Amino acid sequence: MDPSGAESQQPLPRAPGRGSRKSGSRKRHQDQNPVVRLSKTLSYVLRHGAAQLGLEMGADGFVDVAALLSLPHFGGVSVADVRHVVETNEKCRFALRSHPSDGRLQIRANQGHSLQVSELELIPLLEPTALPQTMAHGTYLRHWPAICRGGLSRMGRNHIHLAPGLPGDGHVLSGMRQDCDVAIVIDGPQALADGIQFYRSANGVILTPGDAEGLLPPRYFQRVLQLRPDRRLLPLE
């Protein structure tokens, strides 16, 4: 992989609603890693930027790897580099396949889209027994006062992301950033009873579009944990 990688090209726009969530020093350290840079660029293009960049994306979210690598943002990146990012990503953010008709290598992001992808192989969770016992949204203490008042928002994406457990649970691979310092545990059965839809993505993240306004209102917050430096409950009011 060319160490300059995607960073040597014009920077891609920031993903919708993300903001700056990491400390500057940690972010700079990670951005020096070409594998991390490539993963971030893939995430943006496959979740948000494909149409703007002229990539043809199927309704299932897959794009041709050859077309992807023809973009100037992937100068010096090889198919082997892409395979390495997909195979080593701890959160299983991406999937590779050979196209069913002609064998073209294709890639997609498993979840996190603002683009409309109607056939993303999401599994509907229709009964309370199908929901994980714990569904938690990770956020940051600085955002908690606003979330406490207004609820969780899709923030320009198609879904709100929930991890099927809490940080430290061995089975939880994705759904919450590692540096989150607040976990909001959702009352899934009550939300489901009120008509809120839930899905499981290919990499195990629980997704919900929220209510008609794209929100999970605070009435569905079962409990809220501050994760650092010690775990403790935060007041819901």
Keywords, separated by commas or semicolons:
globular; alpha+beta; 2'-phosphotransferase; four-stranded antiparallel β-sheet; Ptrans_KptA/Tpt1; RNA_2'-PTrans_C; 6 helices; tRNA 2'-phosphotransferase activity; 237 residues; transferase
Explain what the structure shows.
The chain is α+β, with helices and mostly antiparallel strands. The protein is 22% helix and 18% strand. A hairpin with a 5-residue loop joins strand 9 and strand 10. Helix 2 packs across helix 4. The chain is globular, with a radius of gyration of 18 Å. The N and C termini lie far apart (50 Å).
Please report the total strand number as a whole number: 13
What gross morphology would you assign?
globular
Tell me about the largest β-sheet.
Answer: 4 strands, antiparallel
Average pLDDT confidence is 85
Order of helices and strands: HHEHHEEEEHEEEHEEEEE
Radius of gyration in whole Å, from Cα?
A: 18 Å
The helicity comes to 10-25%
Number of helices: 6
* Oligomerization category of the chains in this entry: single chain
Structural class, by secondary structure, is alpha+beta
Through-space gap between termini: 50 Å
Strand order of the largest sheet: 4-9-10-7
Q: Which regions have little confidence, pLDDT < 50, spanning 5+ residues? A: 2-10, 18-25
Strand % is 15-25%
Protein name: 2'-phosphotransferase
Pfam family, one: PTS_2-RNA
EC number: 2.7.1.160
GO molecular function: tRNA 2'-phosphotransferase activity
